[in-house]
Amino acid sequence: MDEFDCLLYEGSAQLPPELSELAPPRPWKKPIGQICWGLALITITLNFFGLNIILPAVGAALLWLGLAPLRRENGGFRFAYACATLYAVLRLTVILLQATPLDHWLASLIGQEWNTTTGPVPLYYALWTVLIQLVLVFAVGGLWQGLKGVFHQAGQKPRTAAAGGLVMLEVLLLPMALVGLEGWLLVGPILILWVCLIVSLRRIGKSLDQAGYTMQPAPMAVSNRLALGVWLGLHLLIIAALPLLFSRLPAGVQTQVYGTTASDSPLRSELLELGFPEDILSRLDDSELVRFEGAYGLKKEGYRNDESDLPDGMPSIVTVEVPVRDEKYGFRTVYLAYLHWNPNEASGGYMEGVQIAQDYQGVTAWTTQPDGVLKWQDSAGNAYTMPLNFRFDTDNAGTACYYANFSLPKDVSGPTEGFLFWEATPTFPEIVSLYNFSVTATHKRSCWQYPYTLPSELLASSFHAPSWQWRMYQWISEGQLAPEGQYDPGKY
Question: Which of 211, 230, 233, 386 could bond to 154 as cystine, CB 3.0-4.6 Å?
Fold first, then answer.
């Protein structure tokens, strides 16, 4: 050992310990790790505690943050970064639309349904699924090509099979989502394969660090923590604030009524003799009364709330069945569902919904689309009416139903009343038929609801929402379709 070597050996003991333990640079560890975590949180979602919103939002941000420093390396990374940006924007757009009625308007504008193994869904939602998943496929594809380009630039054989496998798996997830594939026996093996690919993708970053390829991260205007915080804060603002702006439905056409005194006609007297409730009958005008011309029977059922009851937002429901003579069919039956909101309940609601299931046991009968009207008085004593518009749809069991969504008026003095009419005509009028129907009312109690949900959607799904958000009541009635002389209101 010469004199110079001796000096180096003696001086090595005096070097700072940090220099001897200094780890080699690993520029690929952080971006590849963020990309892997981003893909993981995007793909695996949990449908409770809002994690189905939070996890994909964090995942989209991590995917974008992981690709951001790589965007200047080659064209593949630039394409992946652009697709990740578009993916995050589309995800945010969905969150925004679901907080407003615009989402429902677009779904109704497109119309049609897409059938899955779990039931039909609006075509609008299927198109959103296709668009978002395709953008994610392109982002992962750009990542794959970008990694291949880096290996070529480092003079090594590309080891990017994991990235290519993720592209194919993301493509496979698209038809699985459109079909509605469920069950651990089917999804479990694919999930295991997906986890193995994510782990392998993480190892690609280690291979690039060991290859000695120098990566120059593209500068970021803000820190990762600030970007992620702003991104999540924007989601929170949309979810928390926007639903408050749309807590009530737009008011329908409200018409002031003059001269509300009921006319004294022979038909009113006939209906009173048949047992028509006098208080309800007095609230019917002549155009509504004429529906019962030729009545030969009557059956009344239902319940009435006591004015002293604590307000729960639910109306009392009374149904009246009146068979009437008909020149063409022999007879038809007119139905009235009377809804009564107590004064201390009417102005406190946000949304109300009514579902009428006509003939849900499949009696061969023709039924008309219900029509209805709300009636009330304001604080000045002026009487108003507002029509209720029903639309046809089926519930989750496939039963044909009619739905109406509305909000009760704010300026109310006294009760608010709803009058719902429809008719049933039997296919075989000479046979006495049992006729069953139901009237279900739901009441939204909270001003906040995400995603934006109409009462009709809740009614159609038969989903029992938390009591602090919704209340629901169903009245089921058994009546009969019987010609004159055979009608017996006490038979069923």
Answer: 211
